[in-house]
């Protein structure tokens, strides 16, 4: 772990791993003031994941803090979306099971979300950690010869592909409902307006355009393994009141297994996308 640095009085930062993750300690008033929003965004884009340990933000505070960092997505109740496998809490709980596999949010949208914040409200007795991997760092670590090839490849993504991980033998009606969400053809390498580049992978990735099914599966599986090596991954072990924020444009994430009837509950707020992927 790295030495703590002071961005400004009232806000201290400690890197969690060399290639991903930083911990920020600050009180709610400091975060909600917006005085450090620019620095927090810069750090997020540089480190991929920011952890605010036991911040104990209320829903209103979480929404207010999110709004200091960009435009909030209107979802859930008062901009808070409840992540729960209990259908009485979230009627779409079955779809959330795809979160147990590496993914980037919004790969089938025109503009994927920029970032998301997750706060722990109830935890499972065991499991339920969240893993994040830095797809910027994973790209940068590739051989130059591979980078040249991959920058010209495109991959077809779909919600349906991600659901096959959860339901390998869906009914035809299930498949039709998934297919209605359509597909999106995206570059394998996201060339960001900043000049940086990152890999676009995850469980929504169906096949590489122009490759046979076998070649396509080989490449996507190999790159996923490359991007999720320990040096690129941070695993967050949750405590009640923790808030974690991740850059959705430069990381993948997944939830680790836990008992679906455990009552685990996370509250999410999301920052609107600012950069088209295609």
What does this structure look like?
The chain has 8 helices and 16 strands. It has 278 residues and is of the alpha+beta class. It folds into 2 domains: 5-89 and 111-134 and 232-271, Clavaminate synthase-like (Double-stranded beta-helix); 138-227, no CATH class. Strands 1-2-3-4-14-6-16-5 form an 8-stranded mixed sheet, covered by helices on one side. A 3-stranded antiparallel sheet has the order 13-7-15. Strand 10 (189-191) and strand 11 form a beta hairpin. The longest helix has 15 residues, at 213-227. The chain starts with a strand and ends in a 7-residue tail after the last strand. The mean pLDDT is 95.
Overall spatial form? globular
Integer-rounded radius of gyration: 18 Å
**Helical/strand content category:** alpha+beta
Query: Considering DSSP H and I runs of 4 or more, what fraction of the residues is helical?
Result: 25-40%
Largest sheet: 8 strands, mixed
What name is given to the CATH topology of the largest domain? Double-stranded beta-helix
The CATH fourth-level homologous superfamily of the largest domain: Clavaminate synthase-like
Strand order of the largest sheet: 1-2-3-4-14-6-16-5
Averaged pLDDT: 95
């Amino acid at each position: 772990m790295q030495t703590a640095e002071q961005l400004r009085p009232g806000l201290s930062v400690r890197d969690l791993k060399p290639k991903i993750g930083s911990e920020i300690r600050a009180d709610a008033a400091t975060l909600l003031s917006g005085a450090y929003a620019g620095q927090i965004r810069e750090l997020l884009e540089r480190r991929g994941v920011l952890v605010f340990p036991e911040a104990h933000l209320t829903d209103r505070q979480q929404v207010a803090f999110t709004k200091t960092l960009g435009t909030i997505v209107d979802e859930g109740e008062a901009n808070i979306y409840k992540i729960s496998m209990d259908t009485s809490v979230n009627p779409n709980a079955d779809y959330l099971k795809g979160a147990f596999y590496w993914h980037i949010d919004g790969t089938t949208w025109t503009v994927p979300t920029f970032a998301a914040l997750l706060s722990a409200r109830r935890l499972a007795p065991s499991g339920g950690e969240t893993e994040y991997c830095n797809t910027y760092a994973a790209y940068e670590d590739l051989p130059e010869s591979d980078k040249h090839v991959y920058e010209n490849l495109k991959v077809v993504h779909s919600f349906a592909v991600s659901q096959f991980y959860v339901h390998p033998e869906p009914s035809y009606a299930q498949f039709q409902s998934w297919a209605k969400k359509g597909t999106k053809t995206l570059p394998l390498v996201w060339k960001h307006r900043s000049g940086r580049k990152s890999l676009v992978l995850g469980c929504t990735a169906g096949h590489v355009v122009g490759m046979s099914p076998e070649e396509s599966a080989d490449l996507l599986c190999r790159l996923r393994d490359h991007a999720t090596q320990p040096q690129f991954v941070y695993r967050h072990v949750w405590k009640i009141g923790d808030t974690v924020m991740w850059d959705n444009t430069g990381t993948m994430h997944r939830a680790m297994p836990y008992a679906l009837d455990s009552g685990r509950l996370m509250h999410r707020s999301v920052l609107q996308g600012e950069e088209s992927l295609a």
